[in-house]
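Input chain follows. Return structure tokens only.
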Amino acid sequence: MNKGGAAVSKYRVLLLDADNTLFDYEKAERCALRDTLQLYGFEFTEKALRQYRQINNELWKGIERGELTLSTVQTRRFARLFEVMQFTCDPGEFNSLYIKELEKNVYLLDDADLVCAELCKNNALYVITNGIASVQRGRITRSGLLPYMSGLFISEEIGFAKPHRYFFENVFTQLGDVPRAKMLIVGDSLSADIAGGYASGIDTCWYNPKQQSDKGSLRPTYEIGALIELLDICG
């Protein structure tokens, strides 16, 4: 909902995060890890999933801070997981197969297709995502959302990840003369989407379906619990 009262549509460009905003990334991640472990004859367990998510999330924070590269994270996460779970496997080889499985698993969140189909009638939609280009482009294409999009901005291709200012400067350069006052970023991550948008001087919409209460010092322009609420803001 709009914390400031009645919503007024005033945007020309919507910058939409992908994972856990348009896509159910947790489900895709679970399926990809399960299927890759089974390819190697390893048992998939909830413990393995929890361990992987904890390791992966910590390493991705390092990417957001500019401390780690994407290639480093891809292998290091599985090296750490195998050490904890006492699996014997080459982490680079495992990661390559995991990436292929992840690209296959495409699950849209509720109303994502409907909302994008409606919003693209009056707004230019762009996906802005941290991730591996082949995975993100493949999943967006398979999802059926690509026809609604005016473009894709992917951290691996840009060379910087959200919330880095160079990521957003690249976006603004490619968007040309669109005023920042006419842009809105929508995403689930406070540290990547909301912090990055705020620092870049554009309005922010925090997608918060789990109703988290701790925003720290950040004050998103809008907060929504369901994607369909975007139609009230930008429809």
